[in-house]
Design brief:
Elements: E1 3-7, H1 19-36, E2 44-53, E3 60-64, E4 80-88, E5 97-100, H2 116-121, E6 125-128, H3 138-159, E7 168-172, H4 176-179, H5 181-190, E8 194-198
Parallel strand pairs: 2-7, 5-6, 7-8
Antiparallel strand pairs: 1-3, 2-4, 4-5
Length: 204
């Protein structure tokens, strides 16, 4: 049949032409902040959102050798939720935040779900987006900072014998919510000891 194994085709993320200079500048800003504010490595967190598809399709199939466009069953599955993963520079993984499309707690996992109580005890957060998507919003970001990021920083400061006024770094990507004036103003007013740093666009 002249078929061979193929991966489904999809558009690749475009890396900026000047990505090396952009990333170097971001690194230098980060290093400067850590030096000037005497920030120890546990007080530097990076967070990122990732899509979790409910029914993950396969990226492999069989197609005629030489095929340029290849599709697979389930590869375009859209039903998903968002998980926000945060890890500190000393390797500590923080509790996860999961965001589900919907406007009530009924969109989130049932309280009778297996390991639900264990997840809550571990600090996990299950949030509904209150929008037509499962993406992070200002409200879910506030929840993330208030209940996961800031408590971690305060706990680490106490463990390290540092004052609660000690500055810390939170590095996130340039998602529109993250870099909006509304969110940056809220962070400055509500969590003034947390300094925001951004991963350059197209470089995550």
């Amino acid at each position: 049949m002249d078929w061979s194994e193929h991966r489904a085709t999809r558009a690749a993320q475009k890396t900026p032409v000047n990505w090396e200079d952009t990333c170097e500048q971001a690194f230098l800003r980060l290093a400067y902040t850590m030096k000037e504010e005497d920030i120890p490595t546990p007080l530097y967190i990076n967070s990122d959102q990732t899509q979790v598809v409910y029914a993950q399709g396969s990226s492999l199939t069989w197609a005629k050798t030489g095929s340029k466009q290849v599709s697979t069953i389930g590869n375009d599955e859209k039903r998903a939720f968002t998980v926000v993963v945060s890890i500190s520079n000393d390797g500590t993984m923080l509790p996860l935040q999961a965001i589900y499309q919907g406007s009530t707690k009924g969109s989130c996992p049932s309280t009778s779900s297996d390991r639900y109580d264990d997840s809550l005890n571990a600090g996990f957060r299950f949030e509904f987006s209150n929008t037509k998507t499962y993406w992070s919003t200002h409200e879910t970001m506030h929840d993330l900072v208030d209940n996961i990021i800031a408590p971690y920083f305060d706990k680490k400061k106490r463990e390290l014998g540092l004052p609660l006024t000690q500055k810390s770094i939170w590095q996130i990507d340039v998602w529109s919510v993250h870099r909006s004036k509304e969110f940056r103003t809220w962070m400055k007013n509500t969590h003034p000891t947390i300094i925001l740093h951004y991963v350059p666009g197209g470089c995550t």
